[in-house]
Structures are given as structure tokens and as C-alpha cells.
């Protein structure tokens, strides 16, 4: 039996893991926001937005920076903005999709 050698990818996606984690939290956030977990959702979303923004900076994909700066500001737990209702509930999955897209598109060339 001949084994095929696997060629390593030329790129690495550093933002994929934090993007997946943030998306998982934000997809279940509408159920968590009604209880005492709302501050945890805010912390996770804002911290992971800063991390994904940092990986975008390292990958020189600067167009992601204002997007994730806005996510970090809107979901910040220190000075929470008074959002609620159906718009806020709809913003959670929208931000989750944003994290997934960025996690898949932000990549750097391996050296």
C-alpha cells in the first residue's frame, strides 16, 4: 500500500479558534442573556473580539479592525451599553456569523 504524503498548508488561520469559540457563545447568547450569564457573554465576546482583531492586525488585514473594535465596544462589560429587545437578540447571531467569517478569512503565510 502506498501512502500519500500530506503537504502542509501554506497558510495558518490563527483567528479560527477564537472565532469559533466566540461564535459558539454568541449563538447560545439569546438563551443566556436572560439569566445571570449575561456578563459572561459580554466578557467573552469583547475579549475574543480584541483577540481576533489582533490576529487581523498581524495578518495585515486591517479592514477587520474597525469591525472588531465595534464588537469589542458594543459587547464591553465594563461600560455596558443599554441594548435590549429583539434588535439586541438578533445582534448576537449576526456577530457570531461575523466571527466565523473572520476566523475563516484571516490567515497568514507560514514561514
From TrEMBL:
TM region(s), chain numbering: 15-33, 39-57, 62-81, 87-106
According to UniProt, the name of this protein is DUF6804 family protein
Q: Which residues form a coiled coil?
A: none
- Lineage per the UniProt record: Bacteria, Bacillati, Actinomycetota, Actinomycetes, Micrococcales
Q: What keywords are annotated for this sequence in UniProt? A: Membrane, Transmembrane, Transmembrane helix
Q: Which domain of life is it from?
A: Bacteria
The record, for InterPro entries, names: DUF6804
